[in-house]
Amino acid sequence: MATSTKIVLRKTPNKAGLYPLAIRITKDRSSTYKFIGEYIPLKDWNAKKKLVKNSNPDFKYINDLINIELKKVKKGLKSLKKKNRDSNVYKIKKEVYSPTRNDSFFKFAQEHLDDLKASEKYGRHSSDSGWISYIRRYNKYEELEFKDINERFLKKFKIYLKKEHSLNETSVMNVFVLIRLLFNRAIKYKIVKRKFYPFGKDKVQIKFPETQKIGLNKWEILLLEQLSDLSPGEVHARNLFIFSFNLAGVRISDVLKSRWSHFNNGRYYYRMGKNKKLVSLKPPPKIYVILEQYKKDKRHANDFIFPELKVANINDPKDMHRLIRVSGKKINRHLGNLAKKAKIEKKLTMHIARHSFGHIAEDKIHPIKLQKLYRHSDLKTTINYQASFIHSDADEALESVVNF
Questions:
Q1: Are residue 94 and residue 109 in the same domain, yes or no?
Q2: Number of C-alpha atoms within 13 angstroms, CB side, residue 230?
Q3: CA-CA distance, 165 to 159, in Å (whole number)?
Q4: Which of 317, 333, 352 is the last residue of a domain?
Q5: Over the stretch 302-323, which tens digit does the pLDDT of each residue have?
Q6: Maximum alpha-carbon separation in the chain
Q7: What CATH number has the domain bearing residue 253?
Q8: Given this model, what pLDDT does residue 45 score?
């Protein structure tokens, strides 16, 4: 009896509620399955066409992978048939698919992505999925072992990322940081030996290029505040920027998640989305001026202050993440228009609120106090961040030499 193969969506979901894709091999009415390492929501599967629908953001990549895996199986089956080694599905599976090695990089990477989804870290999942897809494409979707990721592999991979995908040095280093993270975890779990570790002194070193952090000065903040004849969207974007700036640069996701219940006993309490730290700040007067503009839309004590998440399904973190991402782009467009109207030549986005606070603070505030305001876990992070805005010593030194 002929052997058949097809891609199927298995009906047992993982902890994140996603369903695995597998190749089904059938012979003599017996079937066995080989999972391809991809999981999707049930709604994204076209059972008739046996393809992932374009509603899934990774549909093209997954459908390409399905095609590659099916071709690989069919090629293996053809070879086994010639050798008369295709007596039953179990022998076929054993021959076509060599046993999965414990040091499979992509298998370990998929576990990492599954953990991020289960932890509802959708922003991190999105970025890490993208980095891993670059590795898959460079490796031509073939299996990859940790010990194969050596110095030569990484140096050639770096050239590939810059040449084929036009990635800048910072983006390349972000890919390498993910590889290093997975390597360290694999060593911890004894999946790979430390002698194969490709990073460190005299090996591949991860060095991020210095980035220029430019914030608004206090006069530009005042210009922004004094603008008139604005559209409702521009007024709202300015409110969010000023709200963030006056609270030492609260991130856009945390700003949009702010609720009326976060203001209590003259303080602003919130839990950071990035590291889950609980933060307490005394709001400056300008914060209360902004809050007054949104009171008319307050539905209950625990309602969101700003409108973006009022329509969100608060029980669906993925929906919350999507709305924040879409809203952030819209808000930044409005801020770009505000910069033009105020004749501010610097880039203006919500993240610049944090840089603006750092720029105006310069070296006027002790680093330990700034660490609390920035919510950094390590004082070194605060010192390195603030160093981008402190130029007075260098300026004075330069002037002392050339001013004659």
A1: no
A2: 22
A3: 10
A4: 352
A5: 999 999 999 888 888 888 888 9
A6: 96
A7: 1.10.443
A8: 94
Rg over alpha carbons for the chain, rounded to the nearest Å, is 27
Do 342 and 248 lie in one domain? The reply is yes
CA distances from 313 to 175, 214, 310, 320, 323 (A): 32, 36, 9, 7, 10
Task: Say if residue 164 is in the same domain as residue 257.
Answer: no
Strands (E), 249-382: 263-264, 267-271, 278-281
Q: Under 8 Å CB-to-CB from 263, ≥6 apart: which residues? A: 269, 283, 291
The long-range contacts involving 13-22, CB below 8 angstroms and separated by at least 24 positions, are: 13/42, 14/39, 14/114, 14/118, 15/114, 15/118, 16/114, 16/117, 16/118, 17/41, 18/114, 18/117, 19/45, 21/62, 21/66
Separation CA 224–CA 203 (nearest Å): 48
- Per residue in 358-396, pLDDT (tens digit) is 778 766 666 666 566 656 566 666 556 555 555 455 455
- Which is higher by pLDDT, 367 or 220? 220
179 closest CA partner among 192, 167, 163, 162: 192
Grouping H, G, I as helix, E, B as strand and the rest as coil, residue 264 is: strand
Cα–Cα distance for residue pair 159/157, rounded to 1 Å: 5
In angstroms, the Cα distances linking 241 to 248, 280, 348 are 11, 19, 9
**Are residue 297 and residue 253 in the same domain, yes or no?**
yes
For residue 204, give its domain range.
101-209
156: its two tokens: 């050639």
Kind of pairing, strands 4-9 and 51-52? unpaired
The residue out of 186, 209, 232 marking a domain boundary is 209
Going from the C-alpha of 234 to that of each of 240, 346, 368, the distances in angstroms are 10, 17, 35
Residue in this structure with the two tokens 């992505």, named with its chain if needed: 113
User: Is 56:42 a contact under the CB 8 Å cutoff?
Assistant: no
How many domains would you assign to the chain?
4
Q: Is residue 252 part of a domain?
A: yes
- Spatial separation of the C-alpha atoms in residues 42 and 20, rounded to whole Å: 10
pLDDT in tens, 169-179: 999 999 999 99
